[in-house]
Design a protein that fits this description.
The protein is α/β, with parallel strands linked by helices. It has seven helices and seven strands; from the N terminus they run βαβαβαβαβαβααβ. Strands 3-2-1-4-5-6-7 form a seven-stranded parallel sheet, sandwiched between helices. Helix 1 runs parallel beside helix 2. The model has no long low-confidence stretch (mean pLDDT 91).
Length: 249
């Protein structure tokens, strides 16, 4: 198995993408620690992982609370001996409006939230990974500078901000054997609500691909597991494009 005896911490582990990554990591032998703010959704994912034969534990952690994040990851390392993979799936609060219509305080608060949680969770993992001289930090969303669309409001800006943060981490952490990789998807269609209003957005993502396909949750999980494994050890300081060619970041 690709991730046998590895410890993975997933922030936002109760969400659809977090759950898909947890499924994939656990199927490859990792012990997954799922964090979030809603116990019920975390337990739903954990129970699914366990039913499939995997190892999963949950904790209610506010990823904007540095003390809580640090206490949790310290407890994980005390229990398992290491933290090998950390991924934060919490993004900036999406405001799908023209920039001119978004109030400055709302814009700053939304982008700030995304950057704050990523800074907190990465710093927490890095404290241990530097001592280990190993580890993988995964980020989600990425930058696609060739495909900027109207109506996206602060969404892509938030992803771009986190990607800039990831690039800085990459150059600072590489000397410690720590890899940093962003998963660039261009949109995961099976996470969209199954309502008529979303049909156009779903189809536009598919149409943008030369293969006329779009990444699914299973695709994200499979690629994340490979990148985080020793098989993906040559991949770092970059984005991994899993958009079926729709993105050119």
């Amino acid at each position: 198995m690709l991730l046998e005896n590895k410890t993975a911490v997933i922030y936002g582990g109760g969400g659809s993408i977090g759950g898909a990554i947890a499924d994939a990591f656990a199927a490859e032998g990792a012990r997954v620690f799922l964090t979030g703010r809603t116990p019920a959704t975390l337990e739903t994912v954990a129970n699914r992982v366990r039913a499939a034969g995997g190892q999963a534990e949950t904790a209610v952690v506010d990823a904007l609370d540095a003390a809580a994040v640090n206490d949790h990851i310290d407890a994980v390392v005390e229990k398992t001996g290491s933290v090998d993979i950390s991924i934060n799936l919490i993004t900036s609060e999406a405001i799908f409006q023209p920039l001119a219509d978004i109030s400055t305080p709302d814009f700053v608060a939304a982008i700030g939230k995304g950057l704050t949680t990523h800074l907190i969770t990465t710093k927490a993992a890095v404290r241990h990974m530097v001592k280990q001289e190993s580890g993988v930090l995964l980020f989600f969303g990425g930058s696609d500078h060739a495909n900027v669309s109207p109506g996206m409001g602060n969404v892509q800006i938030g992803f771009d901000a986190v990607e800039s943060l990831r690039k800085q981490w990459a150059v600072e952490l590489a000397p410690h054997g720590i890899r940093t990789v962003t998963l660039l998807t261009g949109g995961v269609v099976d996470t969209f609500p199954d309502i008529p209003e979303m049909a156009g957005a779903r189809q536009s993502i598919i149409d943008a691909s030369p293969l006329k396909r779009a990444a699914t949750m299973a695709d994200v999980g499979a690629v994340a597991a490979f990148v985080a494994s020793e098989k993906g050890r040559s991949i770092t300081s970059t984005q991994v494009n899993i958009s079926f060619g729709a993105c050119y970041g």
